Amino acid sequence: MIELRIESIQAYLKKAFGEDAHLLASGDIGQLDAQGMKGFGYGKPVLIKFEVDGEVREAVLSIMKGDRYGHQFYWDRAAILLFQYETSAQMERHVKPVGIGYVDVSDAMVPIQAPKEFFILNEKLAGYDYFKDLDRIQSGYFRADDLAMAQSFAQWIGRVHGEKKNDPPLYCRRVRNLIGASECILGLIDEAFPHPMNGFSDDRFKRLEKRLVDWRWKLKKYTHRLSAVHGDFHPWNVLVTDAGEFSVLDRSRGQWGEPGDDLATMSINYLLWSLRKYGRLEGAFEQLYQTYLGEYLNQTGDVEVFEVIAPFFVFRGLVVASPEWYPDHPTSVRSSLFHFMENVLEDTVFDWENINKYLE
């Protein structure tokens, strides 16, 4: 419950419309109550009457109620309200927006004036992108502390995944997003590849999509696995230092999800670099891969993750196989990645210690 009082509404009106604005009355729709209200419930609109520069105006103040239909978090609801604010006035006969804003942690109402785009300001961290270490290893300079770094990654992400949440609809939402969102599997298939694509026909893409429907229904039985996640844990989102420390950037796609996503995201990059060097997983990159997943299992004991990881490998495989982002891949590398995506969906449990069998 958000507790908004008369003084909060009055303060908002002055911020949004100027110091001359003042509240005249507020209450339920159809009945103004000069005494105001003690609370402002989610989904319950409130009618307010106010005056600006001698003009008396009426408006309906409302806040969107959270639900399990993709509106669990305030940022979900913010996106809907911003859309309504931007587009409602452009439609004939549609109610016109008067203002938009947010309620902060102290229940103060803060207006957003004429939004065009949003930004975020983050702290500057020390370090360099982890992918540079992978480039170094590919060039032949492999060090013992590279294995220690992969081990640290696994220990850290294992601790993150240790936080669980009981919310089956949210787990199912994350699986729906994995397959159907514009920035995930179906969006990548549509936008990150040419059609037709040399070496991978549209019929193969269709078969991939249809197979993923089976996996969507399989994962409905794993809602107990909902955990805290990073959501985009890959070498471009990790900063490492010469002292062996690391930091992460760009947490994406929600606070909660399937741990297999984070495992697939980093480990497929060990496979990618190895494919470009050896044509399969071997050498230093195999050691990194084995260390990362092996330490994760030691940390968490979560062998069940290999029952659900396959569609997450498809998502991340589409990313690293895309000619838009990786135009310099040899044909053999791209072909192996596509075989991997197709084959991994055919195993009930991912055989993580024998990954090369999926490349044929």
UniProtKB/TrEMBL annotation:
It comes from the Bacteria. Residues 204-286 form the Aminoglycoside phosphotransferase domain. Pfam families: APH. SUPFAM superfamilies: Protein kinase-like (PK-like). This is Aminoglycoside phosphotransferase domain-containing protein. It comes from Pseudodesulfovibrio piezophilus (strain DSM 21447 / JCM 15486 / C1TLV30).
